[in-house]
Amino acid sequence: MSKRRVFDIDFDDTTVPAGTEDAPAPETRRGPMAAAISENAEALGERQQAEAAIRAENDRLAHEYVALKRNGQIVGLVDVQAIRTDKLIRDRVAQRDPELGELKASIKAVGLSNPIRVEEVEGGYELIQGFRRLSAYRELFAETGDDAYARIPATLEARGAQVETLYRRMVDENLVRRDISFAEMAQLAMSYGARTGQTIGYAGDPVDLLFASAGRQKRSYIRHFAQLLREVGDTLKHPEVIPRATGLGLVKLLDGQPRFAGQLRALLKGHPDRDAQTELALLRQAVANGVPKPKKAKPVAPKSSARTTIKLNRPEGTARCTASSGKFEILLDRDFGTVDPRRLELAARAFLDALKD
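-> structure tokens emitted (357 positions)
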């Protein structure tokens, strides 16, 4: 049987000395693994806080961007070839704009001060405002090949803008121009009506809708010009130059004379190469005097094939005279160009008077 050995174990005295009850406890010493875990946890927390702050800032910027875009305040450079012009029917005729050269010169000198407006669509952009500015950039790029004109400053609009809103913006932009004509305003109203199925002069009148800020009398003038364009607009080459008084006079004649539209068309077609001033002169003539009726051609007497030859012996030589339809010739060896014109006139008068019936 084994013997049990007894050891004396001396425990440290754990009695806290008097007066040291509130002293800080000695620091607990951590191992390397615990320290690493603690540091990683702190770093992870800081990173999560940073990521949360970045997400919050990105969300704020995204909402701000959407709001700015909705209000048409985001401007970027857009490829001129990526812009379509199909959504809105323009007020401009498809002929060369005589002022486009001045706009191009201004863009070359000082750049474009007012960006165009485009709407993002599938595969590119749709023009909302700035047809002349876009045309100028395209022509400058085609003429110079300069990449500076390959992209145009544009305000980026959010998708889905209502057609009514877009036309109202076009109208507002055009009304700022002092030179916009009644014909151009009428064309805008007609284009909007064709797009929405509304008719000028009936409920939902496009003129009242688009030009609500204009006076009642002005809207009446626009309706009259719309009537003018409906009846003879396809014959007019320069409707934008027609002043208010001339346009109203033409509409009055269209209402009062059933044949006037056809007569006016015939008058204009008789001058196929007319410029703006010539067309305006013809329209004013029609208002002042009515369209002149074609003059009946006077019957022309058939020409005779008879021919008479006379020889006259003169002191200065033999004069050979030939008479035919509408012509009498005298051949004589004499320079008639040296004779006093007054003597020639008297001789001619005496000759013709002697032939009176």
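The first strand starts at residue 74 and ends at 79.
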